[in-house]
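Service request form, structural biology core

Requester: graduate student, group of Dr. S.
Request type: structure prediction, single chain
Budget code: on file
Notes: please return the result as structure tokens.

Sequence provided:
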Amino acid sequence: MNRKFKIFMSFVLMSGFVSLACAQETISPEDAAKFIGRQKTVFGTVTIPLFVHPQKGGPSILILQSANSDQGLTVLIGRPDISKFEKPPGALCSGKEICVTGTIESNRCRPVIVVKDPSRIKIR
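Core staff response, request fulfilled:
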């Protein structure tokens, strides 16, 4: 084999291992309820961005779901933390696949991650 081919194949193999490692580290929104009280990274699509009473200083809420599932995870960004984002989180993430990292809590039987720092959300 020539040197360029070996380098290319090494890159392909390493990329596959990195992708596999990322996939193993994330969970789906519908599995989030199984991990209440634990810090996890959840991967899904933002299907519903909401502002709750923005004129009264309400939070920004992102509903994160996987394809073909009606179960999901609520991502809650408090009003004081919204200003830390370059754009409103709903506009920034709407319809996009994201990974959100944080401690999964339970709110009315629905899993929730409270985000206080934009670095906790990665847009894919």
